[in-house]
Amino acid sequence: MEIELSALAAAVAEEQFTGVVAVDVADEPGERHCYGFANRAFGVPNGPETRFALASGSKTFTALGILRLVDAGRLELSSPVRPILGADLPLIDDAVTVEQLLAHTSGIGDYLDESDDWDASDYVLPVPVHTLATTSGFLPLLDGHPQAFPPGERFAYCNGGYVVLALVIERVSGLDFRTFLQNEVFDRAGLAATSYLRSDELPGDAAVGYLDADGDRSNVLHLPVRGNGDGGAYSTAADLHRFWRALLAGRILGPDLLAEFVRPRNDVPDEPFWYGLGVYVDPDSGVLAMEGYDAGVSMRSLHDPAAATTASVLGNTPDGSWPIAELLLEAITSR
Fold first, then answer.
1. What is the pLDDT of residue 126?
2. How far are the Cα atoms of 69, 90, 104, 172 from residue 158, in angstroms, in the given order?
């Protein structure tokens, strides 16, 4: 696929995009278009190797961590989570399974309900963000939310469900969530630039997330200080392409679980995709997608297995990526 440069320029201007747009085919590095600043105060430009926050795009990694445990025989998709949670989070229905949490059909109450007139740049967290550095630190946020509907009844996107999955990973594996993902997902895929960074000590190659298209106010008070099961990993355009290639080459999952992971299960309201077990899927073209939106973050990474093509837009504002994301989706699905 090729990006029409005039259309890209118009999409960049529409929301004053800052970030990176990348298209890679097979093993060859392809187009890179970089805009704006990774750090405005110090005049550091966004570049091809800049690391960007992925927000909910990171749910794909959490799901793969769970499926690594399934692949190893330490967990089943049909496993209820109650025995793993023990006395924690008692309002989660005893019938909720690992598969339902992965597929957003668990019906558990969500600590961050994106359907409830939610704006990414609101101050929405009811606890100090610096306390959200570990998975167990999220327990006060996850507790006290009753079931929204019976397990398995329907699809409803649930951030809290993916933090519960991080708890499951820790309690089944005996390892810290991020350590487990490093060992079982990032290292297997060769993702040297992908990790969960602290927002209050970002390295020089990571983009600061900004609340608006101009100004220096960052998202540091709006998000957990370190990401967890529902979001917050940082990565580069090159690593995302490397990830898709490694996933489909079988370096993370065996063929049977990989097929389950990418099988479209539920139509997603207001999205051009269906949902698998931690990944978006276009059932017509077979294109796979990761997507993230939060204060200071907007991103979408698309991969077309048939053409071995990855098209990614990584932005460090909440709205800038979306006109470009639509342009990339149209280009990659129009073959």
1. 87
2. 21, 17, 6, 22
117-135 tens-digit pLDDT: 667 777 778 899 999 999 9
Q: What is the model's pLDDT at position 115?
A: 66
Judge if pTM exceeds 0.90.
yes
- Write the Ramachandran bin of 331: left for phi over 0, alpha for psi from -120 to 50, otherwise beta: alpha
pLDDT score recorded for residue 123: 72
Q: Are 179 and 140 in contact (CB under 8 A)?
A: no
Q: Which residues pair with 28 in a beta bridge?
A: 25
- State the CB neighbour count (10 A cutoff) for residue 85: 19
Q: From residue 96, how far is each of 75, 121, 126, 184, 314 by CA, in Å?
A: 14, 31, 26, 25, 34
Residue 291: name the closest of 263, 264, 268 by CA. 268
30, 293 Cβ separation under 8 angstroms: no
At 263-313, the pLDDT tens digits run: 999 999 888 999 999 999 999 999 999 999 999 999 999 999 999 999 999
Evaluate if residue 144 carries a pLDDT over 90. Answer: yes
> What value does the CA radius of gyration of the chain take, rounded to a whole number of Å?
19
Please give the residue range of the domain that contains residue 54: 5-332
Distance CA 145, CA 57 (A): 24
- Which of 188, 232, 245, 236 has its CA nearest to residue 26? 245
- What is the number of domains present in the chain? 1
- Helices 322-332 and 5-14 pack at an angle, to 10 degrees, of 150
Closest CA to 22 of 328, 297, 335, 326: 328
CATH number for position 171: 3.40.710.10
Residues in the chain: 335
Instruction: For residue 35, report the phi and psi dihedrals to the nearest 5 degrees.
Output: -140, 145
Question: What is the model's pLDDT at position 117?
Answer: 67
Give start and end residues of each alpha helix (H) in 190-254.
Answer: 237-248
Q: What does DSSP assign to residue 18?
A: -
**Residues linked to residue 290 through DSSP beta bridges, in sequence order:** 301
3-state SS, residue 101: helix
